[in-house]
């Protein structure tokens, strides 16, 4: 069948501070272009809405004003804020989307333009989302950063669009946070960082997602901002590298932070969410925890 | 290591650091044109920047202009497509930017991404494709490892390049030019 001899279409564009790559297989070139264009537009929209750096984003609007009054946001932003707060609750604050001030002090995140100084001690419990009225309110001034979760959400949105457009096989990869669907499995190399090639592993993903985080990345590496701090604003003990497999990329993305902070103690939460993790220690030894997956 | 390791975690053969360059080709210029400006036709309008223009672009963007040659196309539906390249620490990237007539970015497409060195895992992964059959019978030759989790590909140089091309558009192609 000519359809399946069509070469895969692969596109790449800069978003979320990384290179987003979409590969679409087993459909005609025109179909692949149209579907991937819709997926990229949707990811760019998530980026615009939820960027911490962009003063025009809805997130920046929240950081400037949500401590004064409820701020109306898009359905997408309300959904991601709600998910972020849910993960904070599930992880007892180990995943906390309000740790931006600590990251700003450490110089890994710029100070947001025009946002008031955060209240000392403000945390995720001060964030209220009303999914009915699509509003977000902060009980105290704080800086919300969706960097630990929005990228995974965008990957899920893009994969959903490709599937809706009738694409049979695809991989959406936002700098190593990726989602795969279709009859063929995707094999992904796991890179624990410079000088650690002997610890490299591979992951085989069939209809699911994978996300990785490392606390020992190269200098200037921005990939694990919120990860560097726990709920007590302390720098985390070095787990060199973790990879989480889950159905949704948002879940995998958020859980990498929890596993990086808690190691195998995060196993129960992973199991509860149908996710599993592989952890590489600074001595380059691997261990695993969470649900057993059978693919 | 717990004995019930998840089935998705596989060993990866470790090889000596790769010395060969690894390139991924994404879209051609024509495909990038069609992706960013659907339905438009394009007329090439290559230009050579004057030293004064180069100076002004560098001043506005804070980025160094690598070449005075500007590869630009005018879209029939309005707007411009510019193709350019950036050189990072470990990579060489060609890309295309679509800019509408208001001077806003309409889309960015990477055309080719070439890692000059440093592809430690990439090299291992690249070779693994051909050993994949031994690793796992379900791996198909040529359909093996194309993604790496953990090694974030650099996008900073591309976003810097986009900023430079926005300045180039304003200085050379825009209504005020």
What does this structure look like?
The complex is a heterodimer of chains A (295) and B (177). Chain A has helices at residues 2-5, 29-50, 58-65, 75-90, 100-105, 150-164, 249-262, 267-272, and strands at residues 9-15, 18-25, 71-72, 127-130, 135-138, 169-174, 177-181, 186-190, 201-205, 208-214, 241-246, 276-280, 286-290. Chain A is α+β, with helices and mostly antiparallel strands. In chain A, the strands form three sheets. In chain A, strands 1-2-6-7-10-11-12-13 form an eight-stranded antiparallel sheet. In chain A, strand 6 (169-174) and strand 7 form a beta hairpin. Chain B is α+β, with helices and mostly antiparallel strands. Chain B has helices spanning 29-36, 51-61, 120-135, 156-173; strands spanning 9-11, 22-25, 42-44, 47-48, 69-75, 80-87, 91-99, 105-115, 145-149. In chain B, strands 2, 3, 4, 5, 6, 7 and 8 form a seven-stranded antiparallel sheet that branches. The radius of gyration of chain B is 21 Å and the shape is globular. The relative contact order of chain B is 0.21. Residues 14-20 and 125-144 of chain B have low confidence and may be disordered. The interface between A and B is large, with 62 and 54 residues.
What features would you highlight for this structure?
heterodimer; A: 295 residues; alpha+beta; T-fold; 3-stranded antiparallel beta sheet; 13 strands; globular; B: 177 residues; 7-stranded antiparallel beta sheet; 4 helices; 29% strand
């Amino acid at each position: 069948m000519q359809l399946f001899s069509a070469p895969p279409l692969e596109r790449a564009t800069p978003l979320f501070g990384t290179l987003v790559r979409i590969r679409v297989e087993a459909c005609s070139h025109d179909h692949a272009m149209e579907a991937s264009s819709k997926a990229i537009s949707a990811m760019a929209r998530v980026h615009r809405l939820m960027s911490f750096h962009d003063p025009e984003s809805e997130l920046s609007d929240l950081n400037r004003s949500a401590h004064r009054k409820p701020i109306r946001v898009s359905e997408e932003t309300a959904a991601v804020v709600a998910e972020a707060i849910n993960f904070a609750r599930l992880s007892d604050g180990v995943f906390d989307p309000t740790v931006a001030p600590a990251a700003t002090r450490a110089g890994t995140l710029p100070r947001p333009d025009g946002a008031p100084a955060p209240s000392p001690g403000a945390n995720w419990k001060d964030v209220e989302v009303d999914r009915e009225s699509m509003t977000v309110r902060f009980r105290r001034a704080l800086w919300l950063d969706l960097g630990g979760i929005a990228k995974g959400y965008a990957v899920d949105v893009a994969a959903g669009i490709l599937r809706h457009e009738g694409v049979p096989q695809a991989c959406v990869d936002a700098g190593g946070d990726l989602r795969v669907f279709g009859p063929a499995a995707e094999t992904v190399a796991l890179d624990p960082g410079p000088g650690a090639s002997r610890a490299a592993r591979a992951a085989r993903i069939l209809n699911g997602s994978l996300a990785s985080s490392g606390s020992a990345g190269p200098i200037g590496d921005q990939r694990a901002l919120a990860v560097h701090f726990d709920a007590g604003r302390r720098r985390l003990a070095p787990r060199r590298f973790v990879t989480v497999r889950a159905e949704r990329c948002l879940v995998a993305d958020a859980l990498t932070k929890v596993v990086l902070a808690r190691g195998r103690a995060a196993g129960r939460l992973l199991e509860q969410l149908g996710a599993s993790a592989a952890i590489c220690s600074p001595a380059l030894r691997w261990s695993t925890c969470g649900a057993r997956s059978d693919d | 290591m717990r004995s019930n390791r998840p089935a998705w975690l596989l060993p990866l053969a470790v090889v000596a650091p790769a010395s060969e360059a690894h390139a991924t080709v994404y879209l051609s210029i024509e495909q990038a044109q069609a992706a960013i400006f659907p339905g438009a036709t394009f007329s090439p309008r290559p230009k050579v920047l004057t030293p004064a223009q180069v100076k002004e672009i560098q001043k506005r963007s804070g980025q160094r202009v690598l070449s005075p040659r500007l590869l630009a196309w005018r879209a029939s539906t309005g707007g411009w497509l510019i193709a350019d390249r950036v050189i990072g620490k470990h990579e060489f990237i060609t890309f295309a930017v679509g800019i509408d007539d208001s001077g806003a970015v309409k889309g960015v497409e990477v055309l080719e991404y070439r890692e000059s060195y440093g592809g430690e895992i990439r090299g291992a992964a690249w070779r693994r494709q051909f050993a994949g059959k031994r690793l796992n019978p379900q791996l198909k030759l040529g359909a093996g490892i194309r993604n790496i989790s953990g090694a974030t590909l650099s996008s900073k140089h591309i976003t810097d390049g986009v900023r430079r091309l926005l300045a180039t558009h304003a200085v050379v192609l825009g209504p005020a030019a």
